[in-house]
Here is the input.
Amino acid sequence: MSNNRLKIGEFSRLCRVTVRTLRHYEEIDLLVPEIVDDFTGYRYYSIRQLQKMQSILHLKELGYSLEEIKELWNDDDHVPTIESLEEKIQVCESELMIMKKRHRMLMAMVASRKKIEKMEKIYIESLPAIIVASHRTIIPSYQELGRLCYEVIGPEMARLGCECPEPGYCYSIEHGGYKPQDIDIEYCEKVTAKGTDSDIIKFKDIPEVPTAVCMKVYGSYDKLYQSYIDLFSWIEKEGYEISGNPRANYIDGIWNQEDPDLWLTIIQVPVLKK
Here is the structure.
């Protein structure tokens, strides 16, 4: 800054606008530099032009276009008339009504999409009779389930020579109620035939379930607790009653998807119609 003259970069920083904006204002003859050096092309603004710039920015906030602001500055007082301000108020009221209507439409669309997605992820099917290799223990949280399968259940099933048919089917049931911590869990995996029980693995016949309400749950296992609550609420609302142990059927997990957001678990709840 020298002799109360500001280079375009200095002026833009003080006004908090871009140099591009200042050049545009110059092009439309709204705010022209007081001095333009013919030799260097440098543009210089004066201190008093800061006030004009602040006025321009204030009028833009009030909804005035650059053309309207230019006309105001061509007048002597540079101040909008009462009639002009009242017109802007009417425009604001009209825009507010439009925005409120748009808000209602968007909220309705969100509600509709949520309802559709909820219907898509909850469905009813039957579960066939199967033979499973099972292991029951208490885990501190659902996140411990992956380690349990890899380090305990999987190696023991391999040692016992278990054969799992394709497509694979594994699930867990939670004994003693559903809670996010210290879970009494029983992990079951479908096998082709019963083997010899061990201290870790027990073989069981699981009967057919004629009707099961199912919910798809995408994401890490810590979402299961709330998903159980939501599904039980749906079952009660739709006039069903739970008739057996709910299952968490693991479709995609850490064994084939590194990203937890891509894990898929299907909760399967045996039910009867009330």
About this structure: DSSP finds seven helices and twelve strands in the chain.
